[in-house]
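In this section we walk through a basic example: taking a raw amino acid sequence and producing a predicted 3D structure, encoded as discrete structure tokens. The instruction is simple. Fold the sequence below.
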Amino acid sequence: MENENASGNLTIGAVANAAGVNVETIRFYQLRGLLPRPDRPYGRIRRYTGADVARVRFVKAAQRLGFSLDEIGELLKLDDGTHCNEAADLASQRLADVRARLADLMRMEAALAKLVGECKTQPGTISCPLIAALHGCD
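The resulting token sequence is shown next.
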């Protein structure tokens, strides 16, 4: 099976299955230029390789780290191993974004914890502090 994968004997369904995505994801990545579309021999179906599976897995891993598809396209262009600084710059930008989102989430967590605590300390009141606070937010 490994030789078949290397030589280009995988169907689009097999690539999707091996990469843990659906066939439409493969087609979408091809439309976005993230995955090459193999030639279709006359009257036959396109065949993919194990390298195509690895590329789809790379895209999914980068997405899990928060990279956009455009950024992933840039990372794929830098994949020859000689552009580590450029890749690090993209990752630094993503890291700054993640840290900003974490700070926002921590502020949200603190605000919600405070409101939940106020709800529990004022039982029996007509106006719920949580609902009142949400009415006051714009």
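Looking at the output, two observations stand out. The longest helix spans residues 84-121. Helices lie at 2-7, 12-19, 23-31, 50-64, 69-77, 84-121, 129-136. In the next section we compare this with other chains.
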